[in-house]
Amino acid sequence: MAHPTGADELGALIGEHGYDWERARRGAVGWLVVGVLGTAIGVPVAIGYISDAGSSGFSPLPGLVLGLGLLGLAVGGTLLARSVTRRREVFRLHEGGLVHHRADAEHVLAWQDIARVDYQENDRAAARSVGTDVRCLIHLKAGGRLRVTGYHDNAHRLGSTLWRAIAKGEPPTTP
Question: How would CATH label the architecture of 88-167?
């Protein structure tokens, strides 16, 4: 079988799945607001609580508020960094493989170029808020990985289609 050298040789286009940058950015900003508020409130309360350490009574509240603030900063910062680096990322699913476009680079991958696909779904509100409701790792035979997250358009369909194509040998066909 000849190895495809371009997207045209992968057959008909099944669908395009772009990264939803606006949704990812909104999620990042929300988490950063929680982080800034939680840290701004939590640090003075924790300092005051530590200065009264000799008095009786224990409250986990200062630690919880500060912990939530730090978590918000970490999650928000990570989401913001990912949303910026993946801003123009698109996966184009073809009958004969996958085309990954990011920034100005395009990688054409026939099904035989993909070693395996790890695919999981997590249908919880917390997972949806950080884009981990879909976790799809595409392991390439040449080394490296590509990641599909819940922030990609129609990520559930793309992830399950990729998994079926590689794990079960059932490549997609045009409707």
Answer: Roll (2.30)
What are the sequence ranges of the domains in the chain? 23-84, 88-167
Structure tokens at 23: 């949704």
CB 93 within 8 A of CB 13: yes
- 112-128 as b/e, with b when 16 or more CB fall inside 10 Å? ebbeebebeeeeeeebe
Q: What is the pTM of this model?
A: 0.77
At 12-67, the pLDDT tens digits run 899 999 998 888 899 899 999 999 999 999 888 888 777 766 666 667 777 889 99
Give, rounded to a whole angstrom, the gap between the first and last alpha carbons of the chain: 25
